[in-house]
Write a structure and sequence with these properties.
This protein has helices at 33-42, 63-71, 88-102, 107-120, 124-133, 140-146, 154-162, 167-173, 178-191, 195-212, 216-220, 223-229, 236-251, 253-268, 297-311, 314-322, and strands spanning 7-13, 17-18, 49-53, 56-61, 76-82, 275-278, 289-292. By secondary structure, the protein is mostly helical. It starts with 6 loop residues before the first strand and ends in a 6-residue tail after the last helix.
């Protein structure tokens, strides 16, 4: 692939430029106010590159410059037209080069650039080589992850750009139906969950939908979740915690019931503030753990009496005899 280095310089009427059709667009930035001010004060230093198609022009490089000129109500704009007309591969190469040289590309821009290369370079090895030369990821595994991002619904792309949806979460969502993916992404953004909790939420929503033969939309729009989300007196961390607890109980009712039973038994045992009793992690297995601290023989003797009391307590025996709850 060869970058077109020769151009015809001409003045083009802005009405002849198609801003909707943007096959070479890399940038995700639509802000033009500062650029419009600069054009108004200094003029256009670097004309956009346009490719002629039928009776219209499409932008190869300089989308924001064209938008800024429109904002200033210009009727025409100086432009560069590649002399090798109708050469989309070369124009794609040029678009990627100009954008990647100006600044580091964000994830969506990188995905758009990789998608352009994928459209015009069928050979994978050659595509990886060219990507590396252009400063794009050249690792096949990373390309496989980043490549599809530009095809996600716009709401999800916005969430990725804002940092409210992590890349691992976006990759998980990309495997779902678009409607469900958008709904879950909006849900995650509203709750502002951490990476690990985002992934947990995606998985648990899917599992509940399968287990109860319902849709993700029905789960998220359930009266319980909506009442928590709409509570004006509750802060976001509290809402997130309650929703996670509710969904876990709904996904694993047996484990949740076992935890409730354990907490009731624990609170009734009057262990004291220097003694703690913990259930098996995730109630997998039947190994409970008790720990205590002491700073004197008298305190240690008190713990000894507590242990002796627990050995005879029927509530402890019932916990052990019940065994771990079954997951369904």
């Amino acid at each position: 692939m060869i970058i077109p280095t020769k151009f015809d310089y001409r003045t083009v009427a802005l009405k002849e430029i198609d801003s909707e059709e943007a096959p070479f667009r890399i940038t995700t930035n639509d802000a033009v106010s500062n650029l419009s001010d600069a054009l108004d004060q200094v003029g256009l230093i670097n004309p956009p590159v346009l490719m002629h198609q039928a009776d219209r022009y499409v932008v190869v490089c300089g989308h924001r410059r064209v938008l800024a000129a429109r904002a200033l109500a210009w009727e025409t704009i100086p432009a560069r037209i590649p002399t090798s007309q109708n050469d989309p591969p070369a124009c794609a190469f040029l678009a990627i080069s100009e954008n990647s040289i100006e600044r580091p590309l964000n994830l969506i821009e990188t995905s758009r650039a990789l998608s352009l290369l994928n459209s015009f370079i069928p050979d994978k090895k050659e595509r990886y080589r060219v990507a590396g030369n252009l400063g794009l990821p050249s690792n096949p595994s990373l390309i496989k992850k980043i490549g599809p991002l530009c095809r996600l619904p716009q709401q999800m792309q916005n969430g990725i750009l804002s940092g409210e949806i992590s890349l691992p979460s976006a990759l998980m969502l990309s495997k779902l139906q678009p409607k469900a993916a958008v709904l879950i992404s909006e849900f995650l953004i509203r709750l502002k969950l951490s990476l690990s909790k985002q992934k947990e939420m995606i998985v648990i929503l899917q599992e509940i939908a399968i287990r109860e033969d319902c849709t993700v939309e029905e789960i998220i729009h359930s009266e319980k979740i909506q009442s928590i989300l709409d509570d004006p007196e509750m802060d976001r961390p509290r809402k997130s915690g309650l929703i996670r607890t509710y969904l876990k109980h709904r996904r694993f009712p047996n484990i949740s019931d076992a935890l409730d039973t354990f907490e009731k038994v624990k609170s009734s045992l009057t262990l004291g503030e220097n003694t703690s009793l913990n259930p098996p992690p995730g109630f997998e297995g039947n190994h409970y753990r008790i720990s205590f601290s002491f700073s004197s023989i008298n305190e240690l003797d008190h713990h000894k009496q507590t242990l002796e009391r627990l050995l005879e307590d029927e509530r402890i025996k019932a916990l052990l005899d019940s065994g771990p709850p079954k997951k369904k």
